[in-house]
Specification:
CATH architecture of the largest domain: 3-Layer(aba) Sandwich
Oligomer: single chain
Shape: elongated
CATH superfamily of the largest domain: DNA integrity scanning protein, DisA, N-terminal domain
Number of domains: 2
């Protein structure tokens, strides 16, 4: 207990004890720092780095505990690999850091950090949108028109949206069928759905490296599984070869889904359920 009190006096009290009398400018600085830190956390939460950041915070908390308990070997090891760990973090977060630096150069940089209420982006998609997606998928399945529809959930897909062509249109079955019609400019690639609108078409998605996926599945299915591995989106795939409708979520692919199964799965996404129930199809592939 005496050692713990001594550690507090050496490491904590110098930070707690103010070096001078608190002035108004100090309060303003604290408010500004808190404001930017809060918005930085909000920004990180909307990126793929959020899961990695939680792991880093856990390691930092573990190191604080190890330091308090006097685990000298662990503290010594971490102090020796600190520089290498920092370099690794820069490499891991390179896409997010590059995106943040690009946004600094934009004129609307401040609007990215000023919290505004955007009802259109944050609302759940309507029942009308759900019905239009289901209707269009099975209309395209009957004539074997391939389609790849990515429904955004909590993690924004801005990086993949930028690889396509901006659309920004209200979803309708006629529009979906027209986009994926053969020999049209927007046929190839995926569309991204945010709320009740199609934000972009012909988007490029990462392919899954899962070796357990059936060899019968083509690039469209691997792209659908791939994007579901790196985000919490819901992906609907219409096969051009078989005319079957499948959907992918959390790295798992369910093929030959019936209209009722697809509708129920979309209902789960519509309610923003974090751990959706498993649905049965003719084939289930675990990633």
């Amino acid at each position: 207990m005496t050692g713990f009190i001594s550690w507090l006096q050496v490491h904590i009290l110098p930070w707690v004890t103010p070096p001078k009398q608190i002035e108004i400018i100090d309060i303003i600085q604290v408010i500004l720092i808190a404001f930017f830190v809060y918005n930085l956390i909000i920004w990180v939460k909307d990126t793929r780095a959020y899961t990695l950041l939680r792991g880093i915070l856990f390691i930092i908390a573990f190191m604080v505990v190890a330091n308090v308990l006097g685990m000298e070997v662990i503290v010594w090891l971490v102090s020796r690999v600190g520089i290498a760990a920092f370099t690794a973090l820069v490499i891991i977060f390179q896409p997010e850091l590059r995106k943040a630096l690009e946004q600094v150069g934009h004129r609307n940089f401040l609007t990215r950090f000023i919290p505004t209420r955007n009802v259109e982006e944050n609302k759940r998609f309507s029942d009308q949108t759900l019905n239009e997606i289901v209707h269009a998928c099975y209309e395209m399945a009957e004539v074997r028109t391939g389609a790849l529809i990515v429904v955004e959930n909590n993690i924004r897909l801005d990086d993949y949206e930028q690889t396509g062509i901006p659309v920004d249109a209200i979803i309708s079955s006629q529009l979906l069928i027209n986009i994926f019609e053969h020999n049209t400019p927007l046929h190839d690639g995926a569309i991204i759905v945010r709320g009740d609108r199609i934000t972009a078409a012909t988007c490029y998605l990462p392919l899954s490296d899962n070796t357990s996926l059936s060899k019968r599945l083509g690039t469209r299915h691997r792209a659908g599984v791939g994007i579901s591995e790196v985000s919490d989106c819901f992906v609907v795939i219409v096969s051009e070869e078989t005319g079957q409708v499948s959907y992918a979520q959390e790295g798992k692919l369910r093929t030959a889904a019936s209209p009722a199964q697809l509708r129920e799965a979309l209902h789960e996404v519509q309610k923003l359920v974090q751990t959706p129930k498993r649905r049965r199809g003719k084939e289930a592939v675990n990633v």
